[in-house]
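Review form for a predicted model. The reviewer records the input and the model, then writes brief findings.
Reviewer: anonymous (R2)
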Amino acid sequence: MKLALLFALSTLLYSTSPEMVRGYDSNGKLSYKFEMNYGMMNGVFAKYDPATGNVVAEGNFKNNLRHGTWKIYKDNKLVAHREYKNGFEFEITYVPKEGQPAKPNVTKKANLKKNSRNFIEYSAIAEKDVMWTKRIWRTIDNNETNAFLFGNNKFFGHLFKQMHAGKIKMYSGADDEFKVELTKDSLKTILPEGGFEIVEWKLKEDWVYLNEKMIFEPRIVGICPVIKDKKSGKTTDLCWMYYPDMRESLTGFKVVKKDEPRIQHADDAFYFRYFSSTIYKESNVNNRQISDYATGQAAIAVSHMIEVDLVCVAHGFWVK
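Model under review:
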């Protein structure tokens, strides 16, 4: 309980002005801090060794993507250094180990060229290249950053039309395994007669560390609209959609973000991680959601801890 209370002292979900999130260990020692703005990681990030107070990782984020200088330390000594032009292009400055010659800098740059269907394809993954993976589930709430997913149910309306045109499939919202496909008629029977609104979206994704690219690559598996019956107030997971099969349909829904000109449509927004979200579950042997063992501010704190872990687990591969 002490851990949960300490973390709950400085947690937040969404703010339109910069806010610093801090996390503490069970002894009240600072474990991490990061800035958030508009529900996204924006600004400084730092991970600490609570026992010594020393910084073990520091860098910056811009709209959920690494940006600028990142440094990793061990025993208070620099062991890794990267310069990020953006989340998809960076230069590695190798820090020589004692008695070893220096290595030349290496630049890594992702291929962001769109295919003939107007989206950026994920590269094929060789099993030997996967160093670490974790499945994550998130909720995406209605706020200014995520407005393109909600306004007058327009985004869902676009997907509904794509389903009617036979371009995407929708599956039962009873689980996220994409097993029971919904027909046009069966979906209509689920929709409330008195009207509904989309109150949040659920997102299922895999985080994969790729050795050759030297980066984490989050890949969305599925998305699910959560609807609220306007009469009864009841909320329901309406349906799950398998994300890899719907990417082309997403390119037909225009999205504009003034501070990110690369974003032109909904698939771009997801690819470039331009959305605010809260983790509600990570892969675990008991299949528990965070709400099964934490509530309120403590649950938000756990979500933040998982988010920080996703950032920091990559650092172990940087120094190998």
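Findings: The longest helix spans residues 296-318.
Further findings: Residues 1-11 have pLDDT under 50 and may be disordered.
Recommendation: see findings above.
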